[in-house]
Amino acid sequence: MKIVLINIRCDFTANEPRGVLQIGAVLKKKKHKVMIIDPLFDKIDYSSILSFNPDVIGISFMSLNYKSTKEAILKLKSLFPNTLLIGGGVHPTVDPTSSLKELGFDYLVIGEGESTIVELIGLVSKKAPIKEFYGVKGIAFLDLDSKVHITQERGLINDLDSLPFPAREEIDMKNYLIPPGYIRSYILNKVGTIYSSRGCPGKCTFCCSYASYKGKYRQRSINNVIKEIDFLIKKYNIEGLYFNDETFTYDKKWVIEFCNRIKSYNLPWGLATRVTLVDYNLLKIMKDSGCMQIDYGVESGSDRILKLLKKGTSRKIIENAFSLTHKAGIRTLATIMVGSPSETKKDIDLTIDLLRKIKPNFTLSTFFVPLPGTEVYNELVKDKKINPDFYKNMDYHIVIADTPLINVSAMSDAELIKSKACIDQATFLRNYISLITLHNLSFMIKVVYYSFLSPQLLFKNLFIFIKTQRSDKLIGFLLNNYQTFYLKNKN
């Protein structure tokens, strides 16, 4: 069959659309023809889809892209009224009812999708009667009475090595290997991304991971991971690597063995993990093998808020992890959420105080959003503190947002916006001072040069900067403007 897979996004971060790439790979292995659409810097290319003339269209999306997904489906249904529409990703998993009844999908893939999609497409291709679809684990659809039917839950894939590598050949990889890369403030021309595991044992109330992976952690073998790294080096000549794992250092023995294997590659790499899952010996081994940066989910400097979020951490644990990481010579990134439930100005002051103590090399602050499928969302809906549909009327880009999508803190909107601005101002110099190195100098000159080639956009964004005082947004514009010109020159 001919299958189009669309990754709906509202952000412009040049990260590979791993979900649809992985689904595409398993479908290609079953001899289906696949087209992957990921509108990274542009809108969905409907003309290409028309030329492909698919039998099935699959869409992967998250809750904060609900509006764009709805618009895309309306367009697709007008172009392909008789083509089967399948939904997957986080939102269909946590809210199958709205996905079927409001968006109009024919079928949904619930949770981890590789095994499910192969079985589902197999039945579709042979035009099986509807009764056979009731036996497919991990799907949802409307039955003959227009009621939502969710089949038995499908077990998770234990052997991740059994999955083929993502179908990167179906996207233009030069769009994803553009500087500065995924390791903040360490500029490289080509940074590849990879997963070595799935799942997270954490129980954070704001995270959707549990909905997909049920808190179960699974690890690929080191040989399998090294094989993919070798492929990325040979095929795309990558200069650096970023692991998209939620908790890369969960299995310390695995990490140490991996570091021993990757050390000879002289490849800079970065990762994300929890502050509870590092020690100095491990960090030194990682540093010696090329680890440049670790991204930690700090979220708050208030022990009260950390406890409410069920982070399983504390100020003391966070301070220790950052101290050890800096001692080992590894850069750090801290993510902060502003506006957690019941958060006060006093809690924000504690966060700013903590950031001054731990001195992350880069701090990324965002407004808190209670995402569908999370524990905190369910509690807020149950207590009638939020409208369950608050996210449906607009796409929301958490990283660049100037205002909260919804306010569940103990502060007014104005106080919440000011609190985030205080954090951004307190961390701005440290975020960008490390950019000023000889290694980065030529890149910075190019960024400034290309900005003057788009004077209207430059002055527009300068005006936005003056109005909002969001230096990070101005820098984001400069980088994205450079990337656009960079890609044009590459073509």
Structure summarized in a few sentences:
This protein has 491 residues and is an alpha/beta fold. The protein contains 19 helices and 15 strands.
Describe the structure.
This protein has 491 residues and is of the alpha/beta class. It folds into 3 domains: 149 residues, Rossmann fold (3-Layer(aba) Sandwich); 259 residues, Aldolase class I (TIM Barrel), CATH 3.20.20; 55 residues, no CATH class. Helices cover 43% and strands 14% of the residues. The strands form 3 sheets. The protein has a 7-stranded mixed sheet. It is globular. The mean pLDDT is 92.
Name the overall outline: globular
Q: Which blocks of ≥5 consecutive residues have pLDDT under 50?
A: none
Total domain modules = 3
Helix % is: 40-55%
- Strand runs, count: 15
Task: From the structure above, extract its key features.
seven-stranded mixed beta sheet; 15 strands; Rossmann fold; 19 helices; TIM Barrel; 491 residues; six-stranded parallel beta sheet
Layout of helices and strands:
Blueprint lengths: L1 E6 L10 H12 L3 E5 L8 H7 L3 E5 L5 H14 L4 E5 L1 H5 L1 H6 L5 E3 L4 H12 L4 H4 L5 E4 L5 E3 L40 E4 L2 E2 L10 H5 L4 E2 L2 H15 L3 E4 L8 H11 L6 E5 L6 H9 L2 E9 L3 H6 L6 H13 L3 E8 L6 H14 L3 E6 L7 H8 L30 H21 L4 H14 L3 H14 L2 H20 L1
Parallel strand pairs: 1-2, 1-3, 3-4, 4-5, 8-11, 11-12, 12-13, 13-14, 14-15
Antiparallel strand pairs: 5-6, 6-7, 9-10
Helix pairs in contact: 1-6, 10-11, 14-16, 17-19, 18-19
